[in-house]
From TrEMBL:
InterPro entries: 4pyrrol_Mease, 4pyrrol_Methylase_sf, 4pyrrole_Mease_sub1, 4pyrrole_Mease_sub2, CobA/CysG_C, Siro_Cobalamin_biosynth, Uropor_MeTrfase_CS. CDD domains: SUMT (cd11642). Its EC number is 2.1.1.107. The lineage of its organism: Bacteria, Pseudomonadati, Pseudomonadota, Alphaproteobacteria, Rhodospirillales. This is uroporphyrinogen-III C-methyltransferase. One of its GO terms (biological process) is siroheme biosynthetic process. Pathway: Cofactor biosynthesis; adenosylcobalamin biosynthesis; precorrin-2 from uroporphyrinogen III: step 1/1; Porphyrin-containing compound metabolism; siroheme biosynthesis; precorrin-2 from uroporphyrinogen III: step 1/1. It is an enzyme of class 2 (transferase). It comes from Hwanghaeella grinnelliae. SUPFAM superfamilies: Tetrapyrrole methylase (SSF53790). Pfam families: TP_methylase. Belongs to the precorrin methyltransferase family.
Amino acid sequence: MTSSLVLPSSLPVLEPGWVWLVGAGPGDPGLLTLHALNGLAQADTVVYDALVDDRILALAAPDAEMIHAGKRGGKPSPKQRAISNRLVDLARDGRKVVRLKGGDPFVFGRGGEEALDLVDAGIPFRVVPGITAGIGGLAYAGIPATHRDTNSAVTFVTGHGVTGDVPDGLNWQALAQGSPVLILYMALKHMGEITRRLIEGGRSPHEPTALVCSAATENQRVAVTTLADAPAIAETLDPPAIVVIGDVVRLRPALNWLGALTGTVLEADPLGNRSDREAG
């Protein structure tokens, strides 16, 4: 596919000994940036995470070495230090390296950690931002992150900390009371505890909540419910998932453009509890 595309000649050259930290977006290959596609076309080594869509991997140069780095929440994965060391070794061998990460490298993607390790090792690098799932994935679910009639602020929250547990360093009461829309990454496993903390902090148990699994892929699934019922729904779903809490969820019946492509009738009725499967 890359060979049939003519990229602008002004795009940067991936030099030997460099590492590009590239965001692959939430899933759909069409959401890649030109810089990402340009890097994949030039790389002789691609180090990719488990959640990167196979259709995106297919865009790499035919002779590129493809190295699976794992990094999937809740599953066995290489240690972060081992991945960083591998990037350093590849660059020192004169390879042209693309480190391909789901979503955006700097949004809960540990791209900042890898970049700092490259700095410590004296390896030159470029950051290629990607569309983060908390925005792009919700857009594919027909849920805007912001809308002037519902919220003038949005907060991105990780559902687990370094230990894999719910982050204790967060002020959950402040989050519950201070942000009209919460977008949670990697929260499916701990949805019960997160819900408890938010409700105890003052969040309404009846607040609209949506869980979007495998966003922007052909396996996308969207479940719409309330905050109180979200833990039970979460137990029936598989990661990866994005959870959004707030009145923007009420807009889904009218803005479910992807569902409309497969026959869903768009309407602006109040929130209803349902789960549906949609083509990506």
